[in-house]
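INTERNAL AUDIT FORM
Audit reference: QA-55
Scope: verify that the stored structure record matches its stored sequence.
Auditor: D.O.
Record contents follow.
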Amino acid sequence: MPVRGRKLNGARGWSSRHGTHRALREDRPAHTDHEVSLPPYTAPPAAHARRTVLVGCSFTGLALLHGLARARGRFRPGEVTVVEPRPDHTYRPLAHEALGDGQSLDALRLPLAPHLDALGAQWHAVAATRVDAAQKVVHLANGLVVPYDRLVLATGGARDVPAALEGDGRVMPARVVEDALALRQRLRVLHATRSGMVRVVVVGGGLSGVEWGAALACTRIAGARVTVTIVERAERILPGVHAAPARRVRRVLGELGVEVLVGRAVRRLDGDRLLLDESIALPFDVAVWAAGVRPSPLVATLALPCAPSGQISVTPYLDVATAPGMYAAGEAARIVDERGEPRDVERRADDAIRQGAYLARRFVEPLPAGLGTPYRAAPAVPCAISLGPRRGIVFYGATSVELRMVGPARRLAAAMYLARLQRAAARAARGGTARGGTARGGTARGADADAPRAGG
């Protein structure tokens, strides 16, 4: 487009909002009294964009990726790199449903390869082994070293199985879909190789332990059921829930045939028995560990300030104060307030999603570290707990109601969540943004959106 140029002091060229351009002929002075046609504007190369590396691609990571893609469209080569060894993102809140033979696992899985390709993110399907914050690089298990300008640690967590029990094959974690599949296969082998009912002990009487225990009580192996006992070290199950709905849940568990032992902790194994407090010996064939979560092993290798829980200490803006350009969210992080006190945040999928979306907004907007609105946890909402495929309880505070539609409603929510991710990836692959426009436009305004930004 023709523009009116102006002469530079002591130089032959033109200055405009598109930059400085040399005169077309060096042997002729530049003129200031006519219009010239300039070459079309070219956006800066991708190397000038800030390189974002995401370690971990579950609820938090996917929310971050989709928040960025909604605002700016499909990523340019090298702009966003994902490090995640697992091939799928699974809907963890319903992992216990994989214990049943009739559950379609496709309804709980999102394959990462086509999804990340649609977003334009580069994917390393290996684990990260080390982070060098001084050099701003991530070391991978395959020997590669990935540089970053901005690093997000969203590595999630793992069941906190005691070291004395972790190596025993009879102690199995209860957390993700793969855990449920391994447990289901273990139960089949036990049923085929021994007589009598299979004895399962679920360690942990929180939300996960109760849901896994109820699902196991409703599981049939070659037509035979298993016996289930839940062991909780607190004085009642669901210690983080109001006592009234907790009593209702325990009543339903009793109707399902689940025995509950409270005020007891597992100390060690003794042959085919779990030794609890006060010398109580509990016979078992499989111990399902649903007590506590610890950060991923990568977090322990980082020379970063950590909370007593082992999680990375982050500011209310989810950044690591001692490592510029580094952020942590989800189960890898613990928010510490201005006084250095850890802030209580529920380890729920909706909070993980909110944290990823929050970081995406900070990265899109020019927000320096420590400025803007700090992260706020999700507001309290009614909670639903599944008690087998046909029963469930919805509770809020002291109020609770038993509903048969809890399971189907949660499965519908999972399907809607995964479908929303797929639609967003397809929109990014077509070059669209959340506002219906086309990302990466060839205008000066579009290029400014790709420039390195402060603070994030």
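Auditor finding: record pair retrieved intact. Confidence is low (pLDDT under 50) at residues 1-48, 434-456.
Action required: none
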